[in-house]
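Could you help me review a protein record that somebody else here produced? This is what I was given.
***
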Amino acid sequence: MSMSRRPSDETLAAFAAGRLDEGLALVVAAHVEVNRETRRDLAEIEALSGALLDSIEPEPMAADARTLSVALPHRGIELPPRPAAPPDAAGLHVLAPYTLGRWKSVGRGVALRRVEVPYSDTRVFMLRAQPGTRLPAHRHTGAEWTTIVAGAYEHEYGRYAAGDFDEADDRHAHTPMVDPVEGCTCIVALTGNVRFEGVVGRLLQPFVRL
């Protein structure tokens, strides 16, 4: 898990190179939108990569890369205005090209809104939790990447607040506790499945589909 509260160097480099699955890339793009330091790091990676472009044969950019590129803030290039953030999407401009589901309750104090990402096996959704909510202990069979958009939560690996990126995988089990004052709104990308732990978690497993 990234203890810097930002994407690992490998993840950011893969994002810059367009090598990530679109669902995972969307959650990284949300983090880039809300975190100034990561935007700076991404600009440095792009500047270093730019020196190599003259020796590479040009290829058409994928449609998903174009939409994410337009939605993110750019530096020194005249581009059309960013698309407006969808209603009730925590102000995330990167979500403008996507279809969002309705907010649905998935447990006491927790609501989920799915983000439809075509041609991706990654499940992407927004999660909104009320102050003081304790989520069941769980682990994953794949990746769980989270960008915190508002509020905060903490678990065994530390506290994650607005603008942070929580990069977990199948090595990590955690029990998130939502900030008792601010609550938390985040966007999450999941590969694999969620496995709840403990008696309560096992009782919830048949009813929760993330």
